[in-house]
Amino acid sequence: MSHRIAVIAGDGIGIEVIPEGLRALKAVTERFDIALEFQTFDFGSCDYYLEHGKMLPDDWFEQLKDFDALFYGAVGWPEKVPDHISLWGSLLQFRRRFDQYINLRPCKLMPGIKSPLAGREPGDIDFYVVRENTEGEYSSVGGKMFEGTDREVVIQDTVMTRTGVDRVLKYAFELAQSRPRKKLTSATKSNGISITMPYWDERVEAMATGYPEVAVDKFHIDILTANFVLHPDWFDVVVGSNLFGDILSDLGPACTGTIGIAPSANINPEGNFPSLFEPVHGSAPDIAGKGIANPIGQIWSGAMMLEHLGYQKAADALVKAIEAVLESGDAQVLTPDIGGNGTTQSLGRAIAERIAADISP
Ligand code: NAD
Ligand code: IPM
Ligand code: MN
């Protein structure tokens, strides 16, 4: 069986890391005899916007809905298009219309990478952020009044639905239950945000009754960010609303040395629509065009895509190849964000070659 994958590079370093993601996927699918068929689209980028006045064509949903997965680079180039226009016109549409309500983001300190947190070794940091991905603080409910006057008011509501909260909590509890430590941490702020966050806490408590083996704790988001830095070893599965999950999923990878390696899976677990796989990082205009972006976030996202498509062994082999190359510590190969003087391509090639060299599936 062949799987159809839609590829959208987007902007900035998205254009540089996507080829390395594809190179690694080609190497691993060849080795495991998996058939992926790639189709590239130029929409979902700021250059497309400059030409067409919109981020996506009107029939984008029809064009993409029957793909088995979407493989995305990064989008956004604030000098060309304001961020809220480019992001709400592309990535956030995909997440919402394809009901990708889980954003799964692993945070793992890899061998060979030095954590900025003193004394932390691989094994000390190994958790998942499970981020609600379709509602919460990222709502389109609100408006602007009395524009341009002293009485100007802007309002944007947080929306939590029972369905929306319960389904992300259920996913997070199931994940915690499947892991050896069986621990779930909820990100809250029910001391200050007095309606939605107490509701979130209430739903966590209700869901917990169905998972007696899972140890549950919760922290307000402010101290939780501190604990990510001070005690990253406390965490196993961390579940949060859309905004809290966003913040935690940059902070977590930063604690593991660089956000350049962090992957993410925007999942529609029911499989009604394609899921989307992309690095956590953005288009990084500050380093775009220099050929030094770390491609591991993109490559690891490819491994998450393989896992989602049912190819666990191939996904594991790909992650192992990433680890082996990182562990080798070859400065000629590694990108500058992880202490090397190599390039996007040297690191991507080394990972693809490692997969090809490893003949025992
Ligand atoms: P960013 O993630 O693009 O960059 C933050 C910092 O991390 C920069 O210094 C950058 O050089 C570095 N960095 C990021 N990825 C790296 C990599 N692979 N290798 C080495 N260094 C890397 O975040 P930002 O600067 O806040 O945003 C830039 C643009 O990207 C904005 O338009 C923003 O809206 C967009 N963005 C898009 C996504 C996405 O597509 N999912 C995610 C975040 C930000
Ligand atoms: C992410 C990004 C996006 C988000 C932005 C670019 C809209 O930061 O994927 O983490 O906030 O979800
Ligand atoms: Mn983010």
UniProtKB/TrEMBL annotation:
Keywords annotated in UniProt: Manganese, Metal-binding, NAD, Oxidoreductase
PANTHER family on file: D-MALATE DEHYDROGENASE [DECARBOXYLATING]
Domain of life: Bacteria
Domain Isopropylmalate dehydrogenase-like: 4-351
Catalytic activity entry: (R)-malate + NAD(+) = pyruvate + CO2 + NADH
Record NCBIfam families: TTC
Keyword Oxidoreductase appears in the UniProt entry: yes
Cofactors demanded by this protein: Mg(2+); Mn(2+)
Protein name: D-malate dehydrogenase (decarboxylating)
Molecular function (Gene Ontology), one example: NAD binding
EC code(s) of this entry: 1.1.1.83
SUPFAM superfamilies for this protein: Isocitrate/Isopropylmalate dehydrogenase-like
Family in the record: Belongs to the isocitrate and isopropylmalate dehydrogenases family.
